[in-house]
Design a protein that fits this description.
single chain, mainly alpha, 77% helix, globular
Length: 181
């Protein structure tokens, strides 16, 4: 009995090291391999590793997490735009508000839906990563660019930093979704 009590903790440590740790190591490798296929490796790795779900996610799960990062950044930008609109009405800022409002309210949820199977109005909508990738370009990246470029040459965008963050996250998300196609 004394021998079992001595070896049981060692056996437990052996099992943990050889069964559970390789699984998390494989997931870290998946994040690394996935992020190497994106244009911004550092942003990709830091965004994915900051979400605890990434440790058990497959590539599709990593894509969904990255779309959530895009939504968070777009939401932060939308809030800043709204605060600026409350201070003074400006048609260029209103245009940015409209673009980001559509992104957060409709387009990003549609992208999420394209990456997951779901029922919609009594019918089943299939998983469609090609549609998600197209939406990331057309409905997010281009709208961010329209907001940023709407200020023209003589005027600096008060949302340049936020636009850049949202755009970069969307480009990384699109690259991850592209792996699924």
């Amino acid at each position: 009995m004394k021998i079992i009590s001595i070896y049981l903790p060692l056996l437990t440590i052996f099992i943990i090291q050889n069964v559970f740790l390789p699984i998390s190591h494989c997931r870290a490798d998946l994040i690394d391999q996935t992020c190497k296929q994106t244009p911004n490796y550092n942003l990709c790795v830091s965004s994915l590793k900051s979400n605890p779900r990434s440790s058990t996610a497959d590539v599709k799960g990593l894509a969904i997490i990255m779309v959530e990062v895009v939504k968070s950044k777009a939401n932060d930008t939308l809030n800043k735009i709204w605060a600026e609109l409350l201070r003074h009405e400006d048609p260029v800022i209103r245009n940015c508000y409209d673009h980001y409002g559509y992104m957060v309210g409709a387009f990003i949820p549609d992208i999420y839906g394209d990456l997951t199977s779901r029922g919609l109005g009594g019918r089943f909508v299939r998983y469609n990563p090609a549609q998600a990738e197209r939406r990331l370009h057309d409905d997010v990246i281009l709208r961010v660019d329209h907001c940023q470029n709407g200020f023209g040459q003589g005027r600096r965008s008060p949302f340049a930093k936020e636009n850049k963050a949202t755009r970069e996250a969307a480009v990384v998300a699109a690259a991850i979704v592209w792996i699924l196609i």
